[in-house]
Amino acid sequence: MINRREFLGAVAASVSLPAAALRDARASEWGSPVFDLHFHMRGQLLKAYPKTTFIGHADAFWANVSADYHNEAAYPSGPIVRGGITDRLLGNYPNLYGDLSANSGNNMLSRDPEFTTDFLRRHQNKLLFGSDCSCTDGHGAGVSQANNPAAARLAGMCVARATLTVLKRSASPEIFRKIAWDNAHKLLRIS
């Protein structure tokens, strides 16, 4: 009998479309301290389905960019220690891309400017900008981050606008264009 993971990998590969499957494995309730405790096993999935393109996203994916992350917070702060699981997976598996949207992507980009510039340069062909912002005006109005205490640093702000600002500041114009536009168009075959 085929399991859900095998089914997803087979279907996505058969239609040559990416699968957004490397998310947190939890039923999210804001502030919940439960994260993807099996994140370290994602390499097995990527290796088992080399013809399936996966797009990683969410708290555990971006928190694990730092080698010192131990599932203690959805949005860790402070400098990033090189050699984290996400950084290694992006470097080792051509079938893995990273979606920089939402609080999780913004938090990773905002933590350590020196690391971010190098990270964007190294993975420039595998990173995708996504907005994933629920504000109603592009400036943080409406629900935005007010209902997510773990993302209080972005309360009253448009996450998409804040993420684009960090990307522009951290990347060359060529790399910015790849991440903000070209990579998604190429991956999703949008002309």
Explained architecture:
- With 191 residues, the protein is an alpha/beta fold.
- The chain has one domain.
- The chain is 41% helix and 7% strand.
- Helix 2 links the parallel strand 1 and strand 2.
- Helix 5 runs parallel beside helix 7 and helix 7 crosses helix 8.
- About 9% of the residues have low confidence.
Identify the quaternary structure here.
Answer: single chain
Q: Order of strands across the widest beta sheet?
A: 1-2-3-4
CA-to-CA gap between the ends?
39 Å
Number of helices: 8
Arithmetic mean pLDDT: 81
In short:
The chain is built from 8 helices and 4 strands; from the N terminus they run αβαβααβααβαα. The protein has 191 residues and is an alpha/beta fold. It has one domain.
Index terms:
single chain; 191 residues; alpha/beta; 8 helices; globular
Secondary structure blueprint with pairings:
Layout: H1 4-14, E1 19-22, H2 42-48, E2 54-56, H3 59-63, H4 85-92, E3 96-99, H5 102-111, H6 113-122, E4 127-128, H7 159-170, H8 173-187
Parallel strand pairs: 1-2, 2-3, 3-4
Helix pairs in contact: 5-7, 7-8
